[in-house]
Amino acid sequence: MAQVLSRRDFFKGAVVLGAGASAVGGSTTASMPDIAGFDETDAGKIQDGEWRSVSDRKIKVGIVGYGVCKFGASFGFQKHPNVEVVAAADLFPERCQALAKAVGARQTYSSCEEMYEKDREIEAVFIATDAPSHAELCIKGLKRGLHVASAVPAVFGQEQLELADVLLATVKQTGLVYAMYETSAFRQQIYAMRAIYQAGGFGKLIYSEGEYYHYMPKPIASYNDWRVGLPPQYYPTHSNSFYIDVTNGAFTEVTCLAMPSLLADFQPSRNRYNNPYATEIALFRTSEGGMARMAVSWDMPGAHGEKGRIYGQKGTYESKYTGQADVQKVRQEKLPLPPGMPAGGHGGSHGYLTEDFITAILLNRLPVCHVAAALNNTVAGILAHQSAMRDGETLKIPQYTLDS
Q1: pLDDT 10s digits, 55-75
Q2: Would you place residue 34 in the very low, low, confident or very high pLDDT band (cuts 50, 70, 90)?
Q3: 271, 300, 286, 276: which is closest to 385 by C-alpha?
Q4: 228, 231, 235, 236: CA torsion to nearest 10
Q5: What is the DSSP string of 14-44?
Q6: Of the chain's two ends, which shows fewer C-beta atoms within 10 Å, N or C?
Q7: How far apart, in Å, are the Cα atoms of 56 and each of 52, 82, 85, 366?
Q8: CA contacts within 13 A on the Cβ side of 240
């Protein structure tokens, strides 16, 4: 079992790599690798007209994290007219300075915790750090009085299941906005599915399918090597979104199957998770009483992309909607973004996630990927991996709701 270092301990050991290398997860990389989804910048159909601001107010934002994916600068905060990016933080000084330059932040901090402690200006924070740190940093930010957005997943692994309850309770107690940046939720396909579902065009969903395929014979470099041997269903949100972010529902139980991987990092002794699986296929029961098959895979050559399809009592959406004639007229196009703000990668979703988060703050409303949706999406995957490790045993899944 690999030794798990604290974020601060890892930083202290990694700085010795020197200025000529970018330290990520104990390894070095000269340039950003090709990462699935970043090149998918087609936002799909956009409604005619111009973006309209809901307020003249500017939200002062701090951004944390500029690792191998450089997510801190990828979601367009620095381009949004209702945002002023005032602070940047990263454990690595060179990365922190690069993030500050990329987003125009005038103040830098050596960690998220230092930013929380010292910066009295920020009103909101975007957490783009390593996946195992998301939940703790979001909870601390909310308790500090900040609106919080986080990269996926909301919580990470079986050992963080208790943090799911803490995160939900903290959002409820503070009344602040929490958003998980699930990119699939703002891909054109799910955007259209959600609009049709809300108009009644599907009825209840009988069956849903979601797939996140990302062949990785070698994992993307990661902080403290958290991606090495990563259980696929610990990173389930891109597939589960094809039910959760369409219906705002949940999964109630799961049976998940897997087969041992041939990849070296998925020999159990080679990863901290004692995990032999790089492909996990989950069959869920949904809160509507239907079924959903959600697949995540790292080890199938040629398998690539985030895709899915849904089948309802009144209509179906594969590549387009087939169903009730009157629902065909529902607006399925995305609204315009602010001038100069790019839609970004992962199916033109990046800019829309930030627009949704900032608008939720300004209007005091829920974002699409609110805390209950985020936890219903993420925790289902954690239970799915447990099921796979128990040879497909059916397990009940905790339910998360915004109700008091």
Answers
A1: 999 999 999 999 888 989 999
A2: low
A3: 276
A4: 160
A5: HGGG-TTSEEETTEEESSPPP-TTTT-----
A6: C
A7: 11, 7, 16, 20
A8: 35
